């Protein structure tokens, strides 16, 4: 790609100014490995018991299979709309708008998840250090509100600065976690575990990669949802396709690199966490009830001060992820608005960018949707911050799996049916095909049999997820003019991609 092409503004005013590391920063920040390792595995343990690392291993395999499709699509197509553009260019504009609306829903619900986690960990840290010794039940929501406002403000500054901050913050907290995991692993192997308490008499074991007797192996796929929740965001770099300096090279590297890192990281960390707590019933129960897995482990294995550090690190990680959610959602809203606008209005409304080339209005709209979800959950359903975290996480993941399915089908059509990327061997079709099997079974297992899934608030998770997707489906069917405009815009963008691939 010529230097002039790298520095130019893309259609609508986005600027090509981001490096591969800044693209990785957005994906890693949205994946939030520091936060996820502290709070997501408990949800998996409640379903699969000691086999949490097995569930995360299956999720890692699924994510790597899905990543193949994103990598191939990004090698051909660069667009701020990510899934919307990929699916729209391969399966048609209506399907693209539908899938993009689904991914937008995931980013909005995940924004709630991460803002809630910021509130949970932030309140816990302030309590532990004595700054806010007796916070009220609504206390975490104060920090949730601060997190959403701050995420919006940081989104409307140039993305180059924002993604640099995300990568730096997450890098520090992940490094701390890896040090703790290494120390604990050495002590487990050497048999020098704490003398008393939950972590006494524990040791290294591979039982964490097998289900307990009497547990249905298929139940592991209920826990896999929390694995996908932890990995979700690995594809976020795709929304920077119009802002990366060398998108055809850097965006695929960012996506694949983030997925590979996440796979190794989550499997190793969850394995050490489960070994530290123990694989017996008492250990699994303590693991499930832990408010901060690595905080509890660090306190017992290293020192009491480590709990405060880990809690603060998890809060920072959660905020970085919230910021990434707002960034990703704003790019999707921007792309929708630009591509479906009537002639002459492609740079107005939610498709407008500020003087820094950032879609500020789209960012504000995305943040307001996240705030609305929190308000409705708290005011009408009495949710606490822990509830908004769990509820929105499950709903967002169910929506995301549908978007992944459509993206994978689109990749198959682009690469192996239309053969738009010359040189890709036909045998590689087994990779996205395997992704469809994993994704499909995970979706089915989490919806059917419905009574086994539903318990209290959980009854509404598939309903809300399906409702969001239904709204998107009705909108694209009821407004054919929107689909026609989007189709024309995607065709023009794809033409540019064909010329670039052929040059």
Low-confidence parts lasting 5 or more residues at pLDDT below 50?
1-11
| Proportion of helical residues | over 70%
The total count of strands amounts to 0
SS class: mainly alpha
Number of helices: 20
Summed over residues and divided by their number, the pLDDT gives a mean of 82
What's this model, at a glance?
This protein is an all-alpha fold and 503 residues long.
Your description of this structure?
With 503 residues, this protein is an all-alpha fold. 56% of the residues are buried. α4 (41-48) runs antiparallel to α10, α5 (52-76) packs antiparallel against α11 and α10 crosses α17 (430-447). It has one domain (3-442, 460-502): Up-down Bundle (Amino acid/polyamine transporter I). The N and C termini lie close together (9 Å). It has helices spanning 3-7, 20-31, 33-39, 41-48, 52-76, 83-91, 93-128, 139-155, 159-190, 220-231, 247-277, 281-289, 293-301, 305-340, 360-381, 385-417, 430-447, 450-453, 461-478, 480-502. The model is unreliable at 1-11 (pLDDT under 50). The chain is built from 20 helices and no strands.
Main features:
mainly alpha, 503 residues, disordered N terminus, single chain
Secondary structure: elements and pairs:
Elements: H1 3-7, H2 20-31, H3 33-39, H4 41-48, H5 52-76, H6 83-91, H7 93-128, H8 139-155, H9 159-190, H10 220-231, H11 247-277, H12 281-289, H13 293-301, H14 305-340, H15 360-381, H16 385-417, H17 430-447, H18 450-453, H19 461-478, H20 480-502
Helix pairs in contact: 2-9, 2-11, 2-14, 3-14, 4-10, 4-12, 5-10, 5-11, 5-16, 5-17, 6-7, 6-16, 7-8, 7-14, 7-15, 7-16, 7-19, 8-14, 8-15, 9-11, 9-13, 9-14, 10-16, 10-17, 11-12, 13-14, 14-15, 16-17, 16-19
């Amino acid at each position: 790609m010529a230097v002039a092409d790298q520095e130019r503004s893309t259609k609508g005013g986005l600027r090509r100014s981001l490096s591969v590391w800044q693209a990785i920063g957005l994906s890693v920040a949205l994946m939030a490995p520091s936060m996820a390792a502290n709070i997501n595995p408990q949800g998996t343990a409640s379903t699969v018991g000691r086999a949490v690392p097995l569930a995360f291993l299956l999720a890692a395999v699924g994510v790597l299979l899905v990543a193949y499709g994103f990598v191939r699509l990004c090698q051909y197509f660069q667009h701020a709309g990510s899934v919307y553009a990929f699916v729209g260019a391969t399966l048609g504009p209506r399907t693209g708008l539908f899938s993009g609306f689904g991914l937008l829903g995931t980013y909005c619900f995940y924004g709630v998840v991460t803002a809630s986690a910021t509130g949970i960990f932030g309140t816990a840290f302030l309590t532990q250090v004595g700054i806010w010794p007796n916070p009220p039940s609504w206390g975490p929501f104060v920090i949730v509100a601060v997190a959403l406002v701050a995420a919006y403000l940081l989104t409307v500054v140039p993305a180059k600065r924002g993604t640099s901050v995300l990568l730096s913050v997450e890098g520090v907290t992940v490094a701390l976690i890896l040090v703790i995991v290494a120390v604990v692993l050495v002590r487990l192997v050497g048999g020098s575990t704490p003398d008393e308490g939950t972590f006494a008499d524990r040791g290294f074991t591979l039982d964490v990669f097998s289900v307990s007797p009497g547990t249905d192996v298929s139940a592991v796929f209920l826990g896999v949802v929390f694995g996908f929740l932890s990995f979700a965001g690995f594809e976020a770099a795709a929304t920077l396709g119009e802002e990366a300096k060398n998108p055809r090279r850097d965006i695929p590297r960012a996506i694949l690199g983030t997925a590979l890192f996440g796979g190794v990281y989550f499997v190793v960390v969850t394995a050490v966490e489960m070994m530290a707590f123990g694989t017996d019933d008492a250990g699994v129960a303590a693991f499930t009830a832990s408010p901060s897995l690595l905080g509890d482990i660090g306190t017992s294995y290293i020192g009491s001060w480590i709990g405060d550090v880990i809690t603060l690190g998890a809060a920072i990680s959660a905020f970085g992820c919230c910021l990434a959610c707002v960034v990703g959602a704003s790019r999707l809203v921007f792309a929708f608005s630009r591509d479906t606008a009537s002639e002459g209005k492609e740079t107005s409304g939610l498709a407008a960018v500020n003087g820094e080339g950032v879609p500020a209005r789209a960012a504000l709209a995305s943040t307001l949707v996240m705030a609305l979800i929190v308000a409705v959950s708290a005011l009408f359903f009495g949710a606490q911050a822990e509830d908004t975290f769990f509820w929105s996480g499950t709903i967002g993941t169910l929506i995301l799996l549908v978007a992944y399915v459509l993206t994978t089908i689109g990749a198959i059509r682009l690469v192996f049916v239309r053969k738009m990327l010359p040189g890709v061997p036909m045998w590689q079709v087994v990779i996205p095909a395997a992704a469809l099997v994993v994704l499909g079974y995970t979706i089915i297992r989490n919806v059917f049999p419905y009574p086994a899934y539903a318990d209290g608030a959980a009854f509404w998770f598939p309903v809300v997820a399906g409702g969001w997707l239904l709204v998107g489906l009705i909108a694209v069917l009821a407004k054919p003019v929107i689909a026609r405009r989007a189709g024309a815009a995607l065709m023009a963008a794809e033409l540019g991609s064909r010329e670039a691939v052929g040059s």
